[in-house]
Amino acid sequence: MSPIKLVVLAILFYIAYRLLTSGKKKDKAENLSASTEQDSAPVADVLVEDPVCRKLVPKQQAVRLQHKEKIVYFCSEACCDRFVSQEGEKV
Ligand SMILES: [Zn+2]
């Protein structure tokens, strides 16, 4: 066997190895991105969107409003009041 063939075989093995491990690596990358997202938010909490100002608020700190059998979250009482008055006008 010539040295060139050995190099080609080595490259093929490397590619096969990369293909076999790429699935696992992808999972790890997803886990990493998920953990970095948690790191950016100091509170391990779910972020909810304020429908009035589109701000993302941690669920625990958000102002809650029961609205049409579902709970709506706001960054502040002011946004909550604004939402209530807007919805009142619509209906
Ligand atoms: Zn708001």
Task: Characterise the protein shown here.
- The protein has about 90 residues and is of the alpha+beta class.
- It folds into two domains: about 1-40; about 45-90, Ribosomal Protein L24e, Chain: T, CATH 2.30.170.
- Helices cover about 55% and strands about 20% of the residues.
- The protein is rod-shaped.
- The model has no long low-confidence stretch (mean pLDDT about 80).
- The structure holds zinc ion (ZN).
| Bound ligands, named by name, code or SMILES | zinc ion
Integer average pLDDT: 82
What is the CATH C level class of the largest domain, in words?
Mainly Beta
Number of strands: 4
**Major beta sheet, strand line-up:** 1-2
Poorly predicted sequence stretches spanning 5 or more consecutive residues: none
